[in-house]
Each structure stands twice: as structure tokens, then as C-alpha cells.
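Record type: monomer structure entry
Structure origin: computed from sequence
Chain ID: A
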Amino acid sequence: MMKFLRKHWYDVGGVLSLMVLAFIYLYPQRTDYESVLWLSLVSLFFHQLEEYRIVGTFPGFVNKVMFKSENPDRYPLNTNTAFYVNVFLGWFLYLLAALFGERAVWLGIASILISLGNVIAHSILFNIKGKTFYNAGLASCWLFFVPCIYYFFKTIYADNLVTYSDYLIGIPLGILFNIGIFKGIGWLADKNTTYIFDQRNVLPKDRENRLVE
């Protein structure tokens, strides 16, 4: 079971995104704030699909470009790290924020800051480091994360939902999660790992180099 999840957690997320969208459509009795957070969870699923399945080269990009790895299919990011960081940190926080809704706006702020962190990383940091105009995950950042971020802040101000306490808890928590996602790659890194990405998950030039070798 774990072997399957390490290889297909993002595919599972794709199925879950359809279920959440069906839930939103069939049971519309919720506040605008709750709707934004459920859609924010869907945006996370879509983002991960772009990174790991539709384009799929995010692991190889991170390993090769950001960490200068000689083994971009496994180090420092590997399938085990990707599974734990994205599912246990990402899914968990976004789901909790949607479930608690207005009862814990600080959770919503923390999750939205992760989305914002992704937008900044994919739009600026990754493109500068990789000398590119596009990297796997960039499109979903602007198609899904950015609208959710905008409507989140528009809603909490329009409906007077946010308090100073929400900011005092949510902002540090969001920053901590953003750091934890990045640091988690290093904490779980193992040059001898058996949790190896498929060749489709590395950059095309690295696939060609491996074939030559």
C-alpha cells in the first residue's frame, strides 16, 4: 500500500479533487469563506498534479537546479519525502482549514500563505535559479492559487472574519510550514535511498544523459 502511495499520491489527489468539486456542487449550503477554502484544497491537488503528473518534472528540477544534485531522480528529494511533505503537511493543513472554517481563520491564513509561498517560489525563485520562464507547477499557481489567495483576503475583510489573534497565529504558522516544506527535503534526504522517481519526473536533458551513461 505504501509503495503505491509513494508513487501515486498525487493521482489520488486528482481523484479527491473531483470528489471535493462534486461535494461543493451538490451541497452548496456553505459560507463564501468555506467555499474559498475548499476550492483552495482543490487548487493544491491540481498544483501537485502539474508538478508530479501532467508535466511531472518538478522533482528533477528541484534536485538538479536548486540542489545541484548528481542524482536528480532521488536526491535530495525522493518519492518518500515528496509523499510525506505534500500529504502529511500540505493536505492535512488545507483540509483542516476547510473543515474548521470561520472557527479557525488562523488556519486559513496559514494555508493561504503556503499557496502564496508557492506562487513566489515558482514565479520568481525557481525561474531565476533555472534561467527559465516556466517550471512544473507555475501554471497552476496563477490559474488556481492566485484567485484563491485574492478571494480569501477579500472575503475575510468583507465579512469581518479576521482578528489580530488570527494574524498573530496564522502568519508565523504559515511561515513555519513554508520553511518546514523546504527543510523537510533535507531532513529526509538519503543518497542511498531506494525511493527513486521515474525517469519522466526528471528533466529531459538528465534523462538523455542517463541513457548515454
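Annotation 1: The chain is about 75% helix and 0% strand.
Annotation 2: Residues 123 and 138 are 6 Å apart (CA to CA).
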